[in-house]
Amino acid sequence: MKEVEIYSFDNKDYVLVTKIGSYLYLSNEKDARDMMIRKEDINNPDLLLPLEDEEEFENALLLLTKMKLETEES
Amino acid sequence: MDMEYDNDDRLGIPNFMQKTSTYRNFSVYGKRQSSAISDDKSINMARRNSLDSRRIQATRCKKAVDNSLSGVLKKHWRGLVVTMGIGAVTLSGVQTLSNMYYNVDMVSKNPVVAATSAVVDQHKSITSDFRNWQLDAAAVADDINTILKNGADSLIVLGTLGNSLNEPYTQDELSTIVKSSFGEDPDILVRSLNPERYDQGIQDPDFKEDVRNYIVKQTEADIARASIDANSELKAMFSETSTNVNSDMKGMGGK
Fold first, then answer.
1. A-interface mutation test, from B51, B57, B68, most A Cβ less than 10 A away
2. How far is CA A6 from the centre of its chain?
3. Is residue A1, in this structure, part of any structural domain at all?
4. B59-65 and A23-28 as β-strands: parallel, antiparallel, unpaired?
5. ipTM of model
6. Domain for residue A42, yes or no?
7. Can you tell me the mean pLDDT for B45-58?
8. What is the tally of structural domains in chain A?
9. Fewer Cβ in 10 A, N or C end of chain B?
10. From the candidates A23, A62, A68, which should be mutated to test the interface with B, based on the most B CB atoms within 10 A?
11. A19 assigned to some structural domain
């Protein structure tokens, strides 16, 4: 067993898969295909903000790729 | 593997890709699927969920979950990253995660891939309901023609277009662009390169795999050449500096 952080909303539980900066990479605990990237509000960590646009979505994925690359290299 | 490259080949295809020999048997990748899981549905869902403009008030808690769940969730994210990788969509038939990221990195570093992908992205926009993409195919074709006129490797351009526009609903746009830039339907064009190996046309996994490997090799060669050039420049500078110092010393009475 492993302890994870859960974000609950819309009657669903989302597992925090990883966090990079203010970006939260969330996956529905019961449906692995239901994924999203959200930004944590600086003043309220329980408030999940949407990404601005497609470019930010891709940049957030790029950050995830870079983190994985660094993990692989280390 | 024979990686000879002849500019007189059709589309600049390296020789090995035009053979129908036993290459397939030597492939370490084959046609198997990557262990990374991803598909259009999950990508669109992730995009829609992330860009839905809602400010969500969530409640947080800690919870113990099975280790396997964590692994499954990470695998889906890995699949998403690979599939969303710049021009590297569905190019993930590799053996290890390390290889996968290395190849994605090499592919993304290639300037022709970057330029071609940028052209597609530039003329792509999402509809206001975040459900559909729209692409200005004529504008893409114009920019691609410019890239080709500037001497870009046509195989890399073609492969990148195929990977950037691989969804079923983008095939009409892809066809329009390729016909405009290469004068031929994309599937017919790719099949003509190697009818036996690329029987599925531009979305044939073997074609994608060969293009990916070709791009990786080309990028590695570019990096090596740049390194050699940089070293030569440094040596020339050092030699020039040494000569100047010697001259100065001679001027000061040195031997």
1. B51
2. 11
3. no
4. unpaired
5. 0.91
6. yes
7. 91
8. 1
9. C
10. A68
11. yes
